[in-house]
């Protein structure tokens, strides 16, 4: 019995010991931003919206707005556009536009995932910001200290290679 207890303790310590503090890129910046998030979450009563953007070198771009009320995603809206270059100038063409509410969330294929900011920070820490040998990883907190970019680009990738999230705005919704 004692042997099993010692084995269990050794296994537990090895699991916790393998999660080093420096397993993610920009650990200090991430932790500062996460503390800012916790304060914002409390101030906003966990009710807010944020906009995720994507842009390709081809001129295709998307914006997805995720709305959260009391810690639950209640709405997702999406718009996709392309740029058409003409001799007279640039024309922006709307390719797709829709809004989902709480009754039909995730019924469209396109758009950013319906994550709360709690889930965004968790995914940043567990996936997007992990140190990698063959990738450049970045973290930014340009939304008044809240997360604005977290992700990585694998070395050698040429086009539209960012794996992560880009958030251009976060606001309280009352």
Please describe what this structure looks like.
With 174 residues, the chain is an alpha+beta fold. It has one domain (21-172). The chain is built from 3 helices and 7 strands; from the N terminus they run ααββββαβββ. The protein has a 7-stranded antiparallel sheet with strand order 4-3-2-1-7-6-5, covered by helices on one side.
Key features?
single chain, alpha+beta, 26% helix, disordered N terminus
Layout of helices and strands, plus pairs?
Blueprint: H1 2-17, H2 27-43, E1 48-55, E2 61-69, E3 72-86, E4 89-101, H3 117-128, E5 135-140, E6 149-154, E7 163-172
Antiparallel strand pairs: 1-2, 1-7, 2-3, 3-4, 5-6, 6-7
Continuous helix count: 3
Low-confidence stretches: 1-20
Strand order of the largest sheet: 4-3-2-1-7-6-5
Number of domains: 1
Let me know the average pLDDT: 88
Helix and strand succession? HHEEEEHEEE
Distance N terminus to C terminus?
57 Å
Please summarize the sheet with the most strands: 7 strands, antiparallel
Instruction: Please identify the structural class as seen in this structure.
Output: alpha+beta
Number of strands: 7
Rounded to an integer in angstroms, the radius of gyration calculated over CA atoms is 20 Å
Helix content: 25-40%
Percent of residues in beta strands:
35-45%
Shape verdict: globular
């Amino acid at each position: 019995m004692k042997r099993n207890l010692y084995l269990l303790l050794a296994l537990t310590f090895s699991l916790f010991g393998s999660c080093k503090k420096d397993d993610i890129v920009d650990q200090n910046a991430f932790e500062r931003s996460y503390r800012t998030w916790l304060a914002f979450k409390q101030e906003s009563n966990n009710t807010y919206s944020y906009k995720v953007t994507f842009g390709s070198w081809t001129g295709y771009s998307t914006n997805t707005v995720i709305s959260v009320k009391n810690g639950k995603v209640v709405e997702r809206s999406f718009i996709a556009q392309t740029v058409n270059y003409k001799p007279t100038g640039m024309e922006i063409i709307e390719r797709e536009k829709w809004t989902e509410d709480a009754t039909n969330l995730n019924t469209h294929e396109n758009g950013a995932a319906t994550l709360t900011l709690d889930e965004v920070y968790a995914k940043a820490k567990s996936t997007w910001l992990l140190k990698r040998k063959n990738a450049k990883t970045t973290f930014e907190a340009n939304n008044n200290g809240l997360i604005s970019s977290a992700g990585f680009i694998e070395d050698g990738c040429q086009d539209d290679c960012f794996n992560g999230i880009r958030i251009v705005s976060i606001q309280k919704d009352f």
